[in-house]
Amino acid sequence: MRVLKVPDLFDLSTIMVSDFSPGGAFGSDTTEPDFGFAFNDSNFSDRVLRIEIMPDSPETKSDGDCCSSIAVWARNRKRRREDFKKEIDVVQRQEQVLNFNVPDTVDGLTYENRDDDAVAMIEGSPSDVGLNCNQIGNDTAYDNYSSLNKDHLTVLRVNIIHISSPILAAKSPFFYKLFSNGMTESEQRYVTLPVHASEEAALLDLLNFMYSNTLSTTTPTALLDVLMVADKFEVASCMRYCSRLLRNLPMTCESALLYLDLPSTVLMADAVQPLADAAKQFLAAKYKDVTKFQDEVLNLPLAGIEAVFSSDDLQVASEDAVYDFLLKWARTHYPKLEERRRVFATRLGRLIRFPHMTCRKLKKVLTCNDFDAEIAPKVVLEALFFKAETPHKQRALASEEANAPYRHFLERAYKYRPVKVVEFEKPRQQCVVYMDLKREECAHLFPGGKVYSQAFHLGGQGFFFSAHCHMDQQSSFHCFGLFLGMQEKGPVTFAVDYEFAARSKPTEDYISKYKGNYTFTGGKAVGYRNLFGIPWTTFMADDSNYFINGVLHLRAELTVRQ
Q: Which GO terms describe its biological process (predicted)?
């Protein structure tokens, strides 16, 4: 009879590099067999897992077995993370005591991977231990073992679970390394695993998942606990499972902010990225119109601010408004100048699209103390170089960063359309202003909408464009209108000569449409209800003379009258 040679499960040479990928041996998303029947059954187990339950620090204890809300969970989890390093030190001291006082047993082992990784110890089986093979509960047989640690770390109770090392090793690199390190410890039957009381239920759920590929818990707080423990023991398939269940639950601002505040080791894991992305999208969509939720957004933590202001669909008046808002937020949350400069340099600065700010505001960036003296000139210079580029080059730069998490050159959906301004001081004060509108933006104006430009200045006065869809009173059809308004209100008067022009086919040159002069007073505007003298349907037609590659190009020349 031919004997089949089965490769050693724990021989590292039999594990290919690809096995450690998301679709590999650890945490494959493919359909996996259900070994739930074998969980904690001595008939199908080759090892005994001894789970030592240690007390949480007083600050992290909750009123019940589980947190009553996500907010409570977040507060408790934050404290646990802050205390984790101290607790790991205690566990390491515990190992040294064990090694010193129990010379007949095998030395304890510590496996460290990341800040929140688990600590496990493997030891030989005591000769006087009697176990109920299918018991999950307190183990009085290890009283002597626990008493060794009472001066260092109190053990509340011990849970005994029968495990199959191949099943656990196939799902977790942590357990794989634990059982296959090549030392004598890896051959021992008893494995000691210290965990906090707050992690006990989550660890049992995790172990059950590694057998059955499913979880019985469905509450957000319980799933988050399992997710944290799954990260601790490197069970990527369970992290994906928890992430998927959490994404399917109704998202709230509270839960979205909590997901984004998970430890960096959890948040950066590939298995959790879809959950983090969903949280960012939820916040970006909810606070899309920042002006409606200014107070709420002003109270958001840094992670929430990054989610909202990294969005391309953010509805703000202009990028100048983004700069002003983030400056206000930073001064509120980081009152110390040194901290504020650091957060602008590392986190907030990348949210501002400086190339789309006005030159007047860029000048203020150069003199703003909240920015590091070396950073401000760099971002302003980059913005000015972008503004000097041709439209084709600007579009190319924007497309190059289409997949980047933080964009600088891509234009947002500003409520006030950006303008380009060329100013002259001599022989007369004059400016030439350019504004482009996409066909889609014009289509949204029908039947009675309007869109405003960003402000521009001439002779110390602020002006703006407004494009409208009007009903022509004489001909009774809709048409495109363009107006020029002055920002200042009150008794101010200002006389200008003006000329409106637009690019037109076939030459695609700017063709003058109207010119005239007007003496502005505060809050007044001048313009033409039917700039092109044609109905709206003709203006928007596919063969329209005024849309060049889907863009309407408008120009206005303003000169201060002597």
A: protein ubiquitination; response to red light
